[in-house]
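quick q for whoever's on today - can somebody do inverse folding on this one?? i tried earlier but teh output was garbage lol. tokens:
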């Protein structure tokens, strides 16, 4: 089974439990746990090492995360360790976040601009995207000076390109299409 499909199955199982208990808390804990493991190279080495026992891995995580994880998250982490799937944690977190966002009616919009948007521009963009989609919008901004100006928005698989670079590319194609191989005479016969 592919790692993406496996991560989806684990994320779906955790999501079902989180919906019954505390979706926001589990989402936050999963994000924090994933970041902690990714930032701590020593923890990664222990968790991913094939010759360190499962008991030692669990004991280490208990020591490092004492009082920081709910029982649900602690048992979920143990399940991943027992099944040797702890390396899927970043994929599981991503899939879980998508499920949690769907449940909360939140979509993520990736916005690329040549310059930083003002808070007013950001709010207007969020409001317009929210109106278009009927959902709350979380913007993820990226600066890309090569766009020259305007905004490039991606919501799911839909892309809205309102950049100057895109407009210039369209003009260039249009000019090439309209230019014939023969020069045209201007009013001379």
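ok took a stab at it. sequence:
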């Amino acid at each position: 089974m592919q790692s993406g499909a496996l991560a989806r199955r684990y994320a779906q199982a955790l999501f079902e439990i989180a919906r019954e208990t505390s979706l926001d808390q589990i989402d936050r804990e999963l994000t924090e746990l994933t970041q902690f493991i990714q930032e701590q190279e020593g923890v990664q080495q222990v968790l991913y090492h094939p010759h360190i026992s499962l008991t030692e891995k669990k004991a280490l995580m208990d020591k490092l995360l004492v009082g920081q994880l709910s029982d649900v998250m602690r048992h979920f982490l143990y399940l991943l360790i027992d099944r040797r799937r702890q390396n899927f944690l970043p994929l599981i977190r991503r899939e879980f976040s998508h499920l949690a966002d769907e449940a909360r009616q939140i979509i993520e919009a990736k916005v690329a601009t040549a310059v930083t948007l003002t808070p007013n521009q950001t709010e207007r963009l969020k409001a317009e995207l929210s109106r278009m989609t009927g959902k709350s919008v979380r913007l993820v901004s990226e600066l890309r000076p090569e766009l020259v100006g305007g905004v490039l928005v991606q919501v799911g698989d839909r892309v809205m390109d309102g950049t100057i670079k895109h407009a210039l590319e369209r003009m260039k194609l249009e000019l090439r299409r309209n230019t014939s191989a023969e020069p045209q005479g201007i009013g001379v016969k």
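fwiw The longest helix spans residues 3-20. also The radius of gyration is 25 Å. so keep that in mind when u check it
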